[in-house]
Amino acid sequence: xxxxxxxxxxxxxxxxxxxxxxxxxxxxxxxxxxxxxxxxxxxxxxxxxxxxxxxxxxxxxxxxxxxxxxxxxxxxxxxxxxxxxxxxxxxxxxxxxxxxxxxxxxxxxxxxxxxxxxxxxxxxxxxxxxxxxxxxxxxxxxxxxxxxxxxxxxxxxxxxxxxxxxxxxxxxxxxxxxxxxxxxxxxxxxxxxxxxxxxxxxxxxxxxxxxxxxxxxxxxxxxxxxxxxxxxxxxxxxxxxxxxxxxxxxxxxxxxxxxxxxxxxxxxxxxxxxxxxxxxxxxxxxxxxxxxxxxxxxxxxxxxxxxxxxxxxxxxxxxxxxxxxxxxxxxxxxxxxxxxxxxxxxxxxxxxxxxxxxxxxxxxxxxxxxxxxxxxxxxxxxxxxxxxxxxxxxxxxxxxxxxxxxxxxxxxxxxxxxxxxxx
Length: 423
Description:
- By secondary structure, this protein is mainly α.
- The protein has a domain at 1-47 and 256-284.
- It contains 22 helices and no strands.
- The chain has helices spanning 2-19, 23-37, 42-46, 51-70, 72-82, 91-104, 109-113, 116-127, 131-141, 152-164, 171-192, 214-233, 237-250, 256-262, 265-283, 286-296, 303-317, 320-328, 331-339, 344-357, 365-378, 384-420.
- The protein is globular and about 70 Å long.
């Protein structure tokens, strides 16, 4: 039964990949069949839909839909980048920092993926840097910010840690470990694309004269209010975000119909419905079986890089947010206990980085958005030949990223995890 439950799960992934459907909808449909095959009830399937995660996802995405609607995030990003002025060597540093900040304050990776690639490509065209390099560096900079406690990805980690019984608050440690990995990846990308050869063009001006209007300031103030409610009042993340969103909408900072329609419902459905099917897999012993199978080929030295590789490979054909993290994060504590000599936080960090870094593949959201940004910004220059070249380059970068992750996992993930979250 455990093996059959895993078959149901991977059938959903394969069908979604081949047919280009929302994996969450297919997962729920297969879940309806699975509960009848396994003699369970529909209530067992429904129980897998996390109300807490739903509240967090809806609250955060609604709030940042409002902020994005006002243009505040885009203007903030452009002002941060403008700090470089004519010192264009600062831009490959400011772009990833901008990505990190925008992700970490709450929206998570998915909404900011729509901002960073177009911004990076636009800046690259003005300064002479390779547009693909700048977009990749921007997305790599977002990596560690995705695991802030305020983001949907961070919520998944907190949920997985709580369910596994692991006592430590893992998010800060995962953020630091993945931040070091992100810096290494950015440096490698800068060298690969020969960014060090670029000189500042004559007459370059990187100034943003536009000022924040009242609605934009109110929206940014809303983010600050959300943080105050969470940190100092102890309000649940989702509830805080929903409350602030309600206040902003009440005062007409943005149009509620437009903002609600702009929310990533596709992603929300994916995450919640895949969680429902995963609950059935867990009830039938499928998660334990996968954990045992991984443990059988791992030792304390190979566990971390192999988890990173597994997450990276799974991310090539599925969403990190809706499949990789909910599936693999809960395994980490049990796997660490079975293998021995490895810290669960090291494994969580490997899964976190693997799911994100392989996302630059052209088949994944990150890579697809990079190609979209290049097409929109470069227009006639983005010929069929150039498009095919970028496709291959993105595949190569995804492979290089996973190799770099495996080396990092082998060298410093476990020692650093033991230092930050000793077990």
